[in-house]
Design brief:
Elements: E1 67-74, E2 79-89, E3 95-105, E4 116-120, H1 138-142, E5 148-153, H2 171-192, E6 201-206, H3 208-223, E7 231-235, H4 241-251, H5 257-270, H6 289-294, H7 300-307, H8 318-321, H9 326-337, E8 352-357, H10 366-378, E9 384-389, H11 399-419, H12 427-432
Parallel strand pairs: 4-5, 4-6, 6-7, 7-8, 8-9
Antiparallel strand pairs: 1-2, 2-3, 3-5
Helix pairs in contact: 2-3
Amino acid sequence: MRRVAMHHDTPIRRSALALLTVLLLGGGALSYSSCSKDDDVTTTQRPYMPKEEGHATPEESDEYEPELTGTVRYDEYKLTAYHFNYRSQDPYGNPAILSAAITIGDEVTKAQPARGLLLYNRTTAFKEADAPTQGELTAQKIIVGSGLIAISADHYGFGATADQHQSYGIGIPNAQSSVDALIAAKKLLPKLGYRWNDKFLFNVGYSQGGQTALAVVRIITEQHPELKITQTIVGGGTYDIGATYRSFIESDYSDHPGTVVAVILSFNEFFQLNISREKLFKEPLLSHIDEWYYSKNYSLSGVDRRIGDVPVSQYLSDELLDLNSETSRKLMAAFDKDNLCAGWTPRKNEKITLVHNKTDKTVPYVNAEQFYQFAHNEHGVTDIEMYARDWGRQFDQSEHETGAIYFSLKVVTSVSGTFGILPWISLQTIKEFF
């Protein structure tokens, strides 16, 4: 592989992760699982840096244009990645400069326009190296051959904001960063010499990415009526995060405990609940929060191993286990504010495909059922498909990962069907990415 970094000589760090569980479009657990199989690489721990107040920065100017910060060529994958910074918002609602990647397969050239754009809402990332601009491009590699240009936001807490706590599992702020990245990329691409058919825009994501992609539909509906999504394809996501959390408390189990904790930390931080850690977690987890989460040295699988395959009641506080406690009610109220199954009206002509493994033990199937009820039954969205089966465990993968494989296949067949072309990648090749 030949990797060339240009424009400000931005260093590009390739992810040490083995291929993430969610290929074509990411995944996390609690909607959001990306099960890295790598060994954790520990570097010097950097504490979480709180948001600074009262400083003037370029993000406060509407004149800020997207800025190309790096170009990386991956010969073996036949793609080029362009990294850029753009103006958006942080999860508090303040202006911020965020980062994203544009990835283009070799079938798209400056002389040969792309078939369209694909907004890829990325998988769970716990380590800094997991972000698109840091070299984690598993999903983007899969779409090489499709003729689409992919845009992938790092989201807050990675890339340009790597010194901040990530907005894990908060759908609406992450969707805002994705939509703003899309708009910025459409400004930047012509300057790079690329053209595309603006009639086609696919919006996709699995697990955490699925949650983000549905929130993208909401952001576009409410803020950008001029944008039209050709098809939104989502899988394995927590569209009602409160219901998902409640199910973990009631069942006393999650097969990805690291994500449950990450969600609580994010909502406590960005909704400014100011709940002390002692009211949220038990030992030994309590004493390791800074190391396991804020250092960003550990993968999700690394954090899961450290917490252990234990009941939820062994690491969450007694106050959280009591859904009627003041602490629980405070947290659940914040979850409700990010609920994608209430509080907005999707356009009736949205084309949405929901993919879910009915036996998923990471993200309950009830999420897909609730969003279908909300969109189709309550708001009359007619072009919505529920692609859900009892796939169980296949291909040596967990139920959540098995769902990701079928999700990826659905994306390939949907895109190829839209353009009347043969699928550019096979199920066998998809399976090899796991």
